[in-house]
Amino acid sequence: MIAAVQIGRADWYEASARDRIAGLLDAGSFVEFLGPEQRIMSPHLAQFDLTGAFDDGIAVGRGTLDGQAVLVAAQEGRFLGGAFGEVHGAKLLGLLRGARERPPRAVLLLLDTGGVRLQEANAGELAISEVIHAILNLRRSGVPVIALIGGRAGAFGGGGIITACCSRIVVAEHARISVSGPEVIETNKGVEEFDSRDRALVWRVCGARSRYLLGGADGYVTGSIAAMRKAAAAMIADVPSFGMTMLQAEQQRLTDRLHRFGACRDAPEIWRAAGLPEPDRVGDIDDEAFLTMPRIAGADHDAR
Amino acid sequence: MTLDEVLAALFPGGHTVQPGPFGTIDGTARIKGAGEIIVVGIAGGTPLGIGGALLLAGHVLDAVRAGRKEPIIVLVDTSSQAMARREELLGLNEYLAHLAKSLAFAAMEGHRTVSVLYGPAAAGAFIAAALSSQILVALPGAAPSVMDLPSISRVTKLPLDRLASLAQTTPIFAPGVVPLLATGAVTEAWQAGDDFAARLAVLLAGDHAAVDTRDQLGFERHGRLLAGEVARQVAAAAAHD
């Protein structure tokens, strides 16, 4: 049990995919499917002179959270940036399809990904589309799908789109969510458009606090695995249902956001326009103070 | 092909498709055997950003709300997602996801959804506009990609000529219709000289599986040999004690 307690206190950002699962679920409850011992590896990496991983960078399986049956997937952001390849993506897809057949209380997605693995770009991109399709079908059938974000690789590219297809999104303090990463924008549009080495700017554009304040994430937690566990359990209890009412509300929510903040170029401009107190201090205050701050009106919503 | 050529070839019975803001198009068309259908899209190689994604999703949701369950055709000639700080600041991931959700929902509600690619579509725009329909058709001029080879070369630090020669032996990473057909992403590729209107009528009249079968398609076409089997094994484990 000492190990479990230590894992619980451990930092989500620093932990491996399996340590995150171990600390997130009830102690000892995780059963992995197609684990590393089965060595289901990418057949595509060798031709690029890359060494594969026995699990292709993702762990999937079942367990319990506060005694409730859940299916869980965790990407390993330290292996090729947690990016989607053929096997990696198929493991996640299989988990979601299995959930459709035998519905758990929820599916938890511990995303930690730069997006598509370019060495397997077509298989990775298609896997992302298949995963989106499977998530939406699962939500339609009434199973909550919760995204938990806060790893090294963030949730970029198709990973950012998958995130926004989930029923609820919880971000930890280091989370970043985006489609085009800062480096990609800088490479394509120039350093004047986005200086990817300006860490504070990157943080303001796609970081956890910005996403949470604006309604791009539903829960914000400090970096511990224990805090993520608590938030995940709370989120499962109340999720938006996938249907016309929700989609119309999302259409309205995103239209309102575009109208209210479409002229803003940086996050503090949004926070100022929204009337948040001390918009220039959001990045400086600690997590406790941050969590007592009001969010932008409408950020707490079921339109997802 | 230009948009006008595509519209004329797909809809010889006439259409009302007009350009809208952010490079979007929308209207209706008449198809022999299928009656009136909805046509939306993004044209002119315009990057798909928050404004365009929102408009397209709105058109799709309007069609679902109307309840006539007519087919929805999405014409796609975009570049990639709009790459800008402002787009990401406002949550482009949510806007692209909203479009993907709207198209998926239309299919769930009984609309046949067909994306028709007649120009480039890369990365997130490819996912949201092209891969979110039940069927993806590539016309002459279609140039689907996740990322172009020079960019892949830059990121993977592999020489371009080596990548180009690898692309001849595997469909797993290279851009273009042929590899994306092999992996199961593109359902059908139509050639110049085909009767597009007739082929569209066949697609709209045919049965389609309610489930996503692109992994099987990729296996049958030898472009994605592992995905279907790995997914099947995990699904079986998840569904049993």
From TrEMBL, chain A:
Pfam families: Carboxyl_trans. The keyword Disulfide bond does not apply. Gene3D superfamilies: 2-enoyl-CoA Hydratase, Chain A, domain 1. Keywords: Transferase. Residues 1-244 form the CoA carboxyltransferase N-terminal domain. One of its GO terms (molecular function) is acetyl-CoA carboxylase activity. It comes from the Bacteria. InterPro entries: AcCoA_carboxyl_beta, ClpP/crotonase-like_dom_sf, COA_CT_N, Malonate_beta. GO terms for biological process: carbohydrate metabolic process; fatty acid biosynthetic process; malonyl-CoA biosynthetic process. The keyword Repressor does not apply. PANTHER family: ACETYL-COENZYME A CARBOXYLASE CARBOXYL TRANSFERASE SUBUNIT BETA, CHLOROPLASTIC, MALONATE DECARBOXYLASE BETA SUBUNIT. This is Biotin-independent malonate decarboxylase subunit beta. The lineage of its organism: Bacteria, Pseudomonadati, Pseudomonadota, Alphaproteobacteria, Acetobacterales. The gene is mdcB.
UniProtKB/TrEMBL annotation, chain B:
InterPro entries: ClpP/crotonase-like_dom_sf. It comes from Neoroseomonas lacus. The gene is mdcE. The lineage of its organism: Bacteria, Pseudomonadati, Pseudomonadota, Alphaproteobacteria, Acetobacterales. Gene3D superfamilies: 2-enoyl-CoA Hydratase, Chain A, domain 1. This is Malonate decarboxylase subunit gamma.
